Amino acid sequence: MLDQALDFRVESDVFCELLDSLEEPDWSRPTQFKDWTINDVLAHIHLGNYLADLSLQDSRAFLDFIQTFGRANKKGAGRLAATHEWLDGLNNRALLQRWREFYTAMADRFADADPKLRVKWVGPDMSVRSSISARLMETWAHAQAVYDVLGQDRSATDRLKNVAVIGINTFGWTFRNRSLPVPSDPPYVRLSAPSGEVWEWNPPQDENTVRGQALEFCQVVTQVRNIADTSLQVRGDTAQSWMSIAQCFAGPPENPPAPGTRFRQAGRS
Questions:
Q1: Which pairs from 174-180 meet CB under 8 Å and 24+ separation?
Q2: Which of 23, 112, 223, 243 has CA atoms 20 to 30 A from the CA of 262?
Q3: How far apart are CA 231 and CA 77, in angstroms?
């Protein structure tokens, strides 16, 4: 069984529990993420899951879908509009049920797949292991906007290591995606996991480092928090450059949120 697939299912289950507690008006509440509503966030996550699962099962069908979706995207008001067009009006609790049923079955398919099998994606091809890890990362990151707008506390777990690994592995991508030269000296990263374990990457050094809580590192590389709103200790030009533009997800370059613009808001009114 692929551990990352099991972690993906658990992470989705935890988010599902939060969404299941929503009252009807909550679904249309705008979040701090591009003013997307909670319903928009879930629609985006569900589409991503559908695409990853389609790529696993039928690469030709995946490529055809991407081509068709791209045309709809250009005709409409952007990817979000095309996503809702694809959903054909499915929203709120009905969408919640569809998403839950789909990710549950999808997790089983990924758990039984060859972790090293290469699958297509909107960016470079990736392994099955990386594909389902990316779905966990996207689910965790986008869910943060919902926790924030609802003013809900969120428990961190060591499932975050999946996100941290993607953050580390996309060090070079962050620079290449912006047509910048990739620094030859990746920083030493030392993170404290929620369990108290220490996670480390790259040779230890004092002059080029990122140290702190794994939670905050994951928040920065997924761009759900600005580095200035964390207590991460960042030393050295390379480390500072990376953390100022870190992006662990595919797509064109995205700037991190401005300092102070992503935070847990007051509770539901």
A1: 174/242, 174/245, 174/246, 174/247, 174/248, 175/242, 175/245, 177/247, 177/252, 177/253, 178/245, 178/253
A2: 23
A3: 38
CATH 1.20.120.450 in the chain, residue ranges = 3-154
Distance, in Å, from the CA atom of 218 to the CA atom of 224, rounded to the nearest integer, reads 9
Q: How far apart are CA 141 and CA 155, in angstroms?
A: 13
The fold for domain 3-154 equals: Four Helix Bundle (Hemerythrin (Met), subunit A) (1.20.120)
Q: How far is CA 72 from CA 34, 65, 83, 166, in A?
A: 21, 11, 9, 30
Tokens representing residue 152 in the block:
């809900």
Task: Show the low-confidence residues of the chain (pLDDT under 70).
Answer: 72-77, 267-269
The 10 Å CB-count burial string (b at 16+, else e) for 174-213 is: bbebeeeeebeebbbbbbbbeeeeebebbeeeeebbbbbb
For the chain, how far is it from start to end, CA to CA, in angstroms? Answer: 43
Look at residue 214 in the predicted model and tell me its pLDDT.
98
